[in-house]
């Protein structure tokens, strides 16, 4: 197989992995309780308290998000540069394939993070640009700020979800499988085993390190807003008598029956 064709196959794999790596969970449009819903029931004093908390939270997130984003971008840019240089100078096909899949793995992060940077990078500045001269403007500013805070929390949850771990494992498996399939006629199996499994381990460790270093500030602050700052502001409906009902409850990987009285 010519190297030009190899490059084209590699970039097809890159596009597939980049698309998979950006699969996100989207909140259902029928969500009855979005975070900004409590703004409608706040008086001026509570609105000022929540607005101050939200602005401080978004400002505090900027440092963690910047360190995570810039650190992993630098790491993967270095990885891509080193891989491109090695592919230009090596003559061994196994080594070439090892650097190729390493470059592709690093490129998936660069593409994904460039297209969808963490909201903590820009949320504080975006909220700071909103006007807050009148009560209506202050209420809308708070609503937009809570929306940004919720978006940051969703991004953190997506980047540390089970799906993110599975995609890291999938990318590692695809890299190793590609090396074995493309070099299946080699006479140097010990070298192939070494390069393939070193590549598998390096890709998986890098993916897991990226996941485990994702900041968690936004999720903690969203939970605090829901439990402390928004709960008391919402009108509590009067208790009503409900008829007994039987429903099926699904949670994770199991299903069960729930009897309500």
What would the average pLDDT be, to the nearest integer? 81
Beginning-to-end CA distance, first to last residue: 69 Å
- Structural domain count: 1
Shape: elongated
Could you list the spans in which at least 5 consecutive residues all have pLDDT below 50?
21-32, 235-261
Portion in helices: 55-70%
Specify Rg, calculated over alpha carbons.
Answer: 24 Å
Succession of helices and strands:
HHHHHHHHEE
SS strand fraction: 5-15%
Describe the structure.
The longest helix is centred in the first third of the chain and has 46 residues, at 44-89. Helix 3 (93-115) packs parallel to helix 7. The chain is 68% helix and 5% strand. It is mainly alpha-helical and 261 residues long. The model is unreliable at 21-32 and 235-261 (pLDDT under 50). A two-stranded antiparallel ribbon has the order 1-2.
